[in-house]
Design goal:
The complex is a heterodimer of chains A (about 210) and B (about 90). Chain A is mostly helical. Chain A contains 9 helices and no strands. In chain A, helix 7 crosses helix 9. Chain B has 4 helices and no strands. Classes of the chains: A mainly alpha (about 210), B mainly alpha (about 90).
Amino acid sequence: MANQAAETDLVHRAKAGELAAFEELVTRYERRIYTLARRIVQIPEDAEDVTQETFLSALEHLRDFREEARFHTWLTRIATHAALKVLRRRKGVPFVSLEQATDPDDHSGSVPHPEFIADWRENPERLLEKKETRQLLEEALSELDEKYRVVFLLRDVEGLSVKETASVLGLTESNVKVRLLRARLQLRERLTRAFGDETTRVTARHDHD
Amino acid sequence: MKCEELLALLNDYVDGDIDPAVCEDLEEHLAGCNPCQVVVDNIRKTITLYKGGELYEPPRPFRERLHRLLRERWKETHPAPHHNEFKP
């Protein structure tokens, strides 16, 4: 992948001390990192702080980046930790290793049943052209419990693997999967209520084989 | 397979990370269960929307401040080589 090769080259040049290469990396990723931060912390000013902290930390630790993961994954890890720190500070909770690691919800085995089941009126490509869609997507995300939201963002939006997501959050892979399923189902429910075609609505037959 | 079981396997199925034998069972269920078909389709579309969604644009003054700060910090941590030191 040419893009990946160009990025590896930028990383090498930045590591060798070339400021322009580092700035190019920042320019490439600042929107994505800011967006991720904003979706986790929800407040624009806090998202700026998280973004700044992420790139300062990247600058400081660039030499330690061993290139076993993609540069984007490495940045995402730093940004996620910075964002979660903001949330914890806001709640007045001292640092706890992602409290959620022992969440009973993750082991209860039950997931919420889909309620509103209907075909969507339009395909995603058409929906993405509309401003209202964007607003709705952000609203639906912000209504998700933080522990589900972060997993969904890392896995489905940032494209990290289940293993990478688990490693970033200090969770087991099975915790990640359970949370991801809950997140996806809840978002599906919310979006289908908005985009679903009422005339195609079907009822789930929970009892059938 | 029951709808309940399909739900539990939904992630693996949507992510294409499923045992082929289990996948066969699942698809057999899907073929005869419209609600499950629609749920799978809804989930795929939900993920597509979020993957393809727009990014937030960081405010311009913030971007400028960030780049200035990073350049300053870079200069502190990467002192420029002293070109004049070497005198033949």
